[in-house]
């Protein structure tokens, strides 16, 4: 379901560099690997239906933790709790109980076809669900540009010219691409580079506005350099607000994504509850005799 988005989610809430969130999937795999053999033992003691209910319940709890608790209180502790429950859910539901149900409910000559059908359904789910869930991230990213530009300080074009904001004009495709590839650890530097390039682009207009109000002995080039330094310092002073806005904007998409995964887990839980158990019959050889002591 939403497993492939866990690295990006962890990088965003923990303020990690891009590419370092893969270790979080490894952490989840540890929990999943612990529950996989445990689920096989519990099937013999209880039933495959019970393990499926337990697994989907863990997945439901984990996705709800990720969509609410981990976002409201971002820390390695809350993230680990969510990953643990999702890992437990995957360990209990993937493989063993489903294969057991096939062996218990399908005749021997149709077992191979049933296994192939199960693999096909699993492959379809793996292929479709990320494409559906990614829409939540895409919708959140559409608001990212506007939210960040609203935090950019206005730049003065001179005494007789109104202050201008970079968000009021069009953004070049190169600048937009750099914003789209930014993460929470680099977004401030990306905005500073973007602002620097935009100031250089409109430098002639700024110099023309400054030349009318500069005192004697001060060149427009020196005034522009000072203004540029001050402007970039204002962006740096807003680092906390910019990073918080970046996080909250993307987290709104991640929250909906994990809620969507929770809905899928809930559907699996309901189907597991209404699943009818079937006792496996054991054929006894009529010629078998039991010797009593």
Summarize the structure.
The chain is mostly helical and 293 residues long.
- CATH fourth-tier homologous superfamily of the largest domain: MFS general substrate transporter like domains
- Percent of residues in helical segments? over 70%
**CATH architecture descriptor name of the largest domain:** Up-down Bundle
Average of pLDDT: 78
Oligomer: single chain
Sheet bearing the most strands, described?
none
Specify the CATH class of the largest domain: Mainly Alpha
- CATH-assigned fold name of the largest domain: Growth Hormone, Chain: A
Number of strands: 0
Number of domains: 2
What is the 3D form?
elongated
Low-confidence stretches: 279-284
- Note the total helix count: 12
Portion in strands: under 5%
Return the string of H and E elements.
HHHHHHHHHHHH
Structural class: mainly alpha
Compute the CA-based radius of gyration. Answer: 29 Å
Break the fold down into its secondary structure elements and pairings.
Elements: H1 6-14, H2 22-45, H3 48-72, H4 76-93, H5 96-105, H6 111-142, H7 144-151, H8 173-180, H9 187-201, H10 203-211, H11 220-237, H12 239-273
Helix pairs in contact: 2-3, 2-4, 3-4, 3-5, 3-12, 5-6, 6-12, 7-12, 9-11, 10-11
